[in-house]
Specification:
The protein is α/β, with parallel strands linked by helices. Helices cover about 35% and strands about 20% of the residues. It has a single domain, classed as Spore Coat Polysaccharide Biosynthesis Protein SpsA, Chain A. It has helices at about 15-25, 55-60, 65, 75-85, 125-130, 175-180, 230-245, 265-270, 275-290, 300-310, 320-335; strands at about 5-10, 30-35, 50, 90-95, 100, 110-115, 120, 155-160, 165-170, 195, 200, 210-215, 250-260. Helix 1 links the parallel strand 1 (about 5-10) and strand 2 (about 30-35).
Length: about 350
Amino acid sequence: MKKKYLIITTINKPNKILKRIDILCKKYNLNVIVIGDKKSPLNFNLRYSNYFNLKKQKNFNFGFAKNCPINSYSRKNIGYLLAMSKGADIIIDSDDDNIPKKNFFTNFNRHQICLKLSNKKWVNVYNYFLKSNKLIWPRGFPLDEINKKSIIKGIKKKTDIPIQQYLTEIDPDVDAIYRLILSKQNLKFKKKIPLAISSNSFTPFNSQNTRWFKVSFPLLYLPSYCSFRSSDILRSFIALRILQNCGMSLGYFSPSNFQIRNKHNLIKDFEDENILYLDTKKIVNSIYKTKIPKDKKFMLKALYIIYKKLIQIHVFPKKEMLLLKKWINDVMKMDSTFRFK
């Protein structure tokens, strides 16, 4: 049986949503790791999930854990490393305000029948799955691509998709501009054949409802020295580039959870997403022009090369490299199939 771990970070007390996640994951044999931070409650307790406060995290034998900044979404990396150390085959990303549906606990297969896209460049995957003809785009999608019409093209084919993004209903992952202008729309998506985002197709993906299979674990790394609202999106473009370069694809699937969103300051979200509005295309172009190894054994090397380039063009500060090196060392200690030299 595949060992599956769900990773969540929270600064909230165990509310109804967290308790619901806890009970459902126990029922369906899914291990849960909850990573706390400085703002997390002192007396946090869920019946079946494993919670780790700052003190426990620092005691782990991970170089990253000893150097990760506090009050940072990137502390989720510690949860990923912990799952790897426990022999995880699949790591699932989610948030503390997302409630699983029944299909959240099914279909854990890396190879799936998908519509393997032949579309070039930017693809708004939300349009493919949306039930009604509404304007919508995923967080991180370039603003100047939103109104461009494109017909989804491809062939049905069994495809290697070691990163699988499942959609979220009710309040899906959109940016602050969308929320400020269009507000909540109680959005529903169709059940359709998954999309495989293959070579020459670009789209962002997030950390809201994502499955990572073992071969892709090096790409889980969330950067620390960027805004909270851009961290998982910047990761997605880097991961997509490396995945495609190794001959694999990103999968997009119909919904398997729904969100009752935590309270947000949308103007603060807008400020945090500024880099995504202004520089997404520049960043993606730079990533895809950077030469990286094609062998999946050297994903960590590819990760290093891309971050070095993004530091050179000032997407990240130099201190990001220190944490990345700690991550690389931690991953290689746990899995010798991943190499750097």
